[in-house]
Amino acid sequence: MRKKIIAGNWKMNFSVNEAENFVTEILGSINTNEVDVVICPNFTALDRISNLLEGTNIKLGSQNVYYENKGAFTGEISPSMLYSIGVEYCIVGHSERRQIFNETDEMVNLKAKKLLEIGIKPIICVGETLEQRNEKRMFDVVEDQVKNSLKDISKEDMKNVVIAYEPIWAIGTGVTATSEEAEDMCKFIRNVVKGIYSEDISNNLKVQYGGSVNAKNANEILNMPNIDGALVGGASLKNEFTAIVNY
Ligand code: PEP
Fold first, then answer.
1. Nearest by Cα to 59 from 2, 119, 114, 18
2. How much distance in Å is there from the Cα of 54 to the middle of ligand 1?
3. Mean pLDDT score across all residues of the chain
4. Residue nearest to atom 6 of ligand 1 (CA)
5. How many whole angstroms separate alpha carbon 29 and alpha carbon 24?
6. Whose CA is nearest to atom 8 of ligand 1?
7. Is pLDDT above 90 for 175?
């Protein structure tokens, strides 16, 4: 039985004080017995939120990282820096990073490998555009993203990889994939991973769905057999997040 994992991607929102206030507000209502919960604040809030989460079962996640541990990379943050403040998960390859900052599968792969090396679990995002779905190319697109992002990641390291299926047309749009569409793609991703690694690794892999998940649709989505959790954007900035976690 795979334990569900629900992550809140705050994106570029909340000042440090706002972040602390929000976490303080929701802390008591989040039950982590049934579900692993990850909160991904912006870089400036990570350290203070890390302190706030100490002694709780809520995990800290980053929204991005660079793929070297130190050096002349102005403006970047390294896996070792994140690790030193208690970050346990890191989103890589979010579609906003791919589309706005031109991140490629190769960069996503380098980031994932460097995170695994240091002991942080990557949440690797994949997903097709609306155009690709309309052209019925979504399975090919996602298969390529999965294969390229996982290149040279060992079987052992796969225990610490999470994949998030996030159709780009569903992110921040209020349009959710139907639970069947989400289930079909998450099942497909599991099969791709089975082809690369083994049945055992694919059975243990956690595949999240992300794209306009909210308190109303969470239950149906999270009850699909191949969906092991959610990556939540907009709704993770509100009290609604607790309802999603306690779905
Ligand atoms: C996301 O940013 O990963 C996301 C899924 O956003 P939203 O829930 O707002 O669609």
1. 119
2. 26
3. 97
4. 233
5. 10
6. 233
7. no
Residue labelled with tokens 């225990």:
159
Q: Are 34 and 63 in contact (CB under 8 A)?
A: no
Could you report the per-residue pLDDT of 96-150, keeping only the tens digit for each?
Answer: 999 999 999 999 999 999 999 999 999 999 999 999 999 999 999 999 999 999 9
SS3 per-residue string spanning 85-123: CCCCEEEECCHHHHHHCCCCHHHHHHHHHHHHHHCCEEE
Ligand 1 atom nearest to 11, measured from its CA: 2
Helix, strand, coil proportions of the chain in percent (round to 5)?
Answer: 45, 15, 40
- Which residue from 76, 90, 126, 82 is spatially nearest to 7, judged by alpha carbons? 90
Ligand 1 atom nearest to 96, measured from its CA: 2
Is the C-beta atom of 234 inside 6 A of ligand 1? yes
Q: Flag whether pLDDT at 172 surpasses 90.
A: no
Identify which has the larger pLDDT, 176 or 92.
92
Task: Say what angle helices 138-149 and 105-118 make with each other, to 10 degrees.
Answer: 40
**Cβ(150)–Cβ(110) below 8 Å:** no
Give Cα separations from 114 to 42, 68, 129, 157 (angstroms).
Answer: 20, 7, 27, 11
Nearest atom, ligand 1, residue 230 CA: 5
pTM of the entire structure?
Answer: 0.98
Active site residues: 94, 166
